[in-house]
């Protein structure tokens, strides 16, 4: 049985749950332990000079390549930020978790929220405090910093004169961050419509929204308070957003209280256009909140898990568990599928002395191509519910199916034995702290601690060790892998903001298989060659007639960001290029590798033409405010648009832009030649290649992928997906770091507008 990852993590997990291990939209696995959040990023799809922190040296008997991981962590201070007794001496304000502050839960925001195009993370500790964290230079290996005390915000927004109620409202007991809704507007506007929900000890839900700030990283602002009951809100979970029309979305927020009841809050968001004066419309979001009828009445049995799953072709299903039971609920839909509530009883899988069906659920994974739900329990067992779409049941549809609770539990036990050199017996228990799917199919990732319950010896905190495992529980056939490849590039939406390495994680994993890559590669290349129609040809920008004023630059930056990152066909091309590059690297047959290179070159050219068309049309719209320092950059875009192979419409637009520029300015021939000076010997360097520059004395320099200027400074950012480099935005770097020919306000605004790589769509990091 293949094992992709077996990593010892010296830590303690105090709160085993299905939120203990979760994926962020940046493609990072976040593991919540007692004192820190471990952030692990698998290396497939990541290509830059820094190697992964963890790289297994061994292969396995099936020719599967082990996974490497980049690792960092968030380690909040162990002390209390807010001492509740100093604010209120009422007994109800006491938090027992303040005696030894630890981490309880984490919620990851959607990606592309910060000025660096990444996600932020909220952390809830045992003192009922919430903090907001963001990565600084390098989210893979670098430091994450605390950018906001959210509890302080809740205390400052308290409106009641009742002190104890204000304190209880600020004491958070659960949290959940929604995804971005898709308003069906193309290109996708630059707007954050995700919502952070905080359940508290006052029986309310506080709704907050993130505000981007290029200087501090961003902060949360208060939206609304929804009162529910007088009991603690213990769990929250957002359903996927459902779009009912252009600019109109709805979602259900499920909640549970300490009395065991489960209910819903309906959240409706409408997109309102505030201005159509600039290059792209300005939007704002209005939200309406309303409590729905109860799903489960209070029965004094605590809810241990609350989450949603989305089978295709039907309404989402709410999964909530109580000791020994799993409840499934859904509302009626247009399709002939089940609705209402279904209750299934867990059966104990006898694997060890610690086996029990009443332990908490520590992971939930929906397997799309099998229509099955996999759940992991704290005792180390796995359980499978089949036929989720039509009628959920423990029984598999076919006799001999390996996707059963018994088979999965035995496979988990076998993997536990395989990574334990000393061997195991029935006295050894592998207590799972958290589990998630790696590929939404057969490969799972989970973390467990091995122990013997009958051993009453004391083990202090530093002696505890957990094991992180990634392994497939059954083998996928080639048809399923190809279906995964097709689905990865179909129905692409830019609204989610997720990084391409997150969307392509499953496909990249399966293509790394040495045993099947040779047979899959030709068919994958055929899928990659099915290029979507170019939507950027429909871009229409009004000419700017108000001069170079304070309104132009923010509108230009927003328009550039919208068009460079908001077109689905451009995102599809970037994702296809990532897979084509991966195939080229994995291919050992020279002839097949040449075909991979040919497909990649075609995709690269298509991306370049889309980007150039966007830039040329923006330059044409602001031609009236272009100044002399801007001319070198404008001419560079013209030259690139006139290269052989460019679409005729792009070449015509670039030529028209050049003619207008020539008629308006007397251009120095030295500037028109687009020569730069070598940073080493100051010899003239002609613009013969877009990616690299070589002077007559042999000095070679990389070029900025955004502006094509020579990179002669360490103040650069590197794409994690393709290792292309770009100059830092002007808001981060000093203006003196820009080349002389790049001293243009257009260049500065373009560098600030580009938050992700223009060619593969992944995030940048700063290595220096």
From TrEMBL:
It comes from Suillus placidus. Residues 23-272 form the Transcription factor IIIC 90kDa subunit N-terminal domain. Residues 672-764 form the Transcription factor IIIC putative zinc-finger domain. GO terms for biological process: transcription initiation at RNA polymerase III promoter. One of its GO terms (molecular function) is histone acetyltransferase activity. InterPro entries: GTF3C4 (IPR044230), TFIIIC_delta_N (IPR024761), TFIIIC_Znf (IPR024764), WD40_repeat_dom_sf (IPR036322). This is Transcription factor IIIC subunit delta N-term-domain-containing protein. One of its GO terms (cellular component) is transcription factor TFIIIC complex. It holds the Pfam family TFIIIC_delta.
């Amino acid at each position: 049985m293949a094992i992709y990852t077996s990593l010892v993590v010296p830590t303690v997990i105090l709160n085993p749950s299905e939120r203990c291990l979760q994926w962020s939209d940046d493609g990072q696995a976040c593991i919540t332990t007692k004192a820190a959040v471990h952030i692990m990023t698998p290396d497939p799809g990541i290509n830059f000079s820094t190697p992964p922190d963890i790289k297994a040296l061994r292969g396995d008997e099936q020719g599967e390549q082990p996974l490497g991981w980049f690792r960092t962590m968030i380690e909040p201070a162990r002390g209390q930020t807010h001492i509740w007794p100093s604010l209120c001496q009422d007994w109800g304000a006491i938090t027992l978790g303040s005696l030894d502050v630890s981490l309880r839960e984490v919620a990851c925001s959607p990606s592309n929220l910060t000025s660096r195009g990444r996600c932020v993370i909220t952390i809830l500790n045992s003192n009922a405090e919430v903090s907001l964290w963001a990565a600084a230079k390098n989210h893979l290996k670098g430091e994450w910093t605390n950018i906001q005390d959210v509890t302080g915000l809740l205390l400052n927004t308290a409106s009641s004169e009742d002190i104890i109620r204000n304190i209880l409202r600020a004491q958070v007991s659960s949290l959940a961050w929604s995804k971005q809704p898709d308003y069906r507007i193309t290109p996708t506007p630059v707007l954050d419509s995700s919502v952070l929900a905080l359940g508290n000890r006052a029986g309310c839900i506080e709704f907050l929204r993130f505000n981007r700030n290029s200087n501090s990283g961003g902060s949360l602002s208060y939206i609304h308070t929804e009162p529910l009951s007088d009991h603690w809100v213990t769990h929250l979970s957002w359903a996927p957003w459902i779009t009912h029309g252009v600019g109109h979305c709805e979602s259900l927020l499920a909640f549970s209280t300490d009395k065991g009841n489960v209910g819903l809050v309906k959240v409706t968001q409408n997109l309102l256009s505030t201005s159509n004066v600039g290059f792209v419309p300005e939007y704002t979001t209005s939200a309406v909140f309303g409590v729905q009828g109860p799903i489960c009445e209070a029965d004094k049995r605590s809810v241990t898990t609350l989450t949603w799953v989305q089978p295709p072709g039907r309404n989402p299903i709410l999964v909530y568990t109580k000791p020994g039971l799993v409840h499934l609920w859904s509302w009626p839909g247009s399709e002939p599928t089940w609705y209402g509530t279904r209750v299934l009883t867990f059966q104990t899988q006898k694997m060890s002395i610690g086996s029990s069906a009443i332990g908490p659920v520590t992971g939930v994974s929906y397997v799309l191509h099998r229509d099955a739900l996999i759940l992991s329990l704290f005792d180390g067992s796995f359980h499978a519910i089949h036929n989720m779409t039509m009628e959920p049941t423990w029984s598999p549809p076919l006799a001999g199916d390996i996707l059963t609770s018994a088979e999965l539990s035995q496979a988990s036990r076998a993997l536990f034995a395989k990574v334990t050199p000393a061997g195991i017996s029935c006295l050894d228990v592998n207590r799972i702290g958290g589990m998630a799917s790696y590929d939404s199919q057969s490969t799972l990732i989970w973390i467990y601690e091995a122990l013997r319950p009958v051993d009453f010896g004391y083990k202090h905190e530093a002696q505890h060790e957990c094991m992180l495992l990634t392994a497939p529980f059954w083998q996928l056939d080639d048809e399923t892998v190809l279906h995964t490849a097709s689905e990865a590039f179909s129905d692409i939406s830019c609204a989610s903001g997720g990084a391409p390495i997150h969307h392509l994680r499953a496909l990249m994993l399966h293509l790394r298989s040495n045993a099947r890559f040779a047979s899959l590669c030709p068919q994958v290349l055929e899928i990659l060659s099915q290029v979507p129609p170019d939507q950027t040809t429909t871009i229409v920008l009004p000419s700017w007639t108000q001069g170079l004023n304070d309104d132009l630059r923010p509108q230009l930056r927003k328009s550039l960001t919208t068009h460079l990152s908001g077109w689905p066909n451009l995102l599809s091309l970037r994702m296809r290029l990532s897979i084509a590059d991966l195939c080229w690297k994995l291919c050992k047959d020279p002839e097949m590798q040449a075909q991979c290179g040919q497909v990649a070159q075609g995709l690269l050219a298509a991306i370049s033409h889309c980007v150039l068309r966007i830039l040329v049309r923006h330059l044409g719209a602001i031609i009236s405010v272009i100044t002399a320092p801007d001319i070198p950059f404008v001419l560079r875009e013209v030259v690139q648009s006139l290269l052989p192979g460019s679409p005729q419409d792009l070449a015509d637009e670039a030529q028209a832009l050049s003619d207008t520029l020539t008629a308006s300015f007397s251009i120095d021939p030295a500037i028109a030649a687009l020569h730069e000076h070598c940073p080493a010997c100051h010899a003239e360097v002609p613009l013969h290649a877009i990616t690299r520059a070589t002077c007559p004395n042999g000095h070679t320099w990389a070029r900025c992928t955004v502006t094509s200027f020579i990179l002669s400074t360490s103040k650069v950012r590197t794409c994690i997906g393709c290792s292309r480099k770009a100059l830092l935005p002007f808001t981060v770097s000093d203006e003196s770091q820009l080349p002389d020919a790049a001293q243009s306000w257009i260049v500065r605004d373009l560098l600030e507008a580009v938050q992700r790589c223009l060619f593969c769509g992944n995030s940048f990091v700063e290595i220096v």
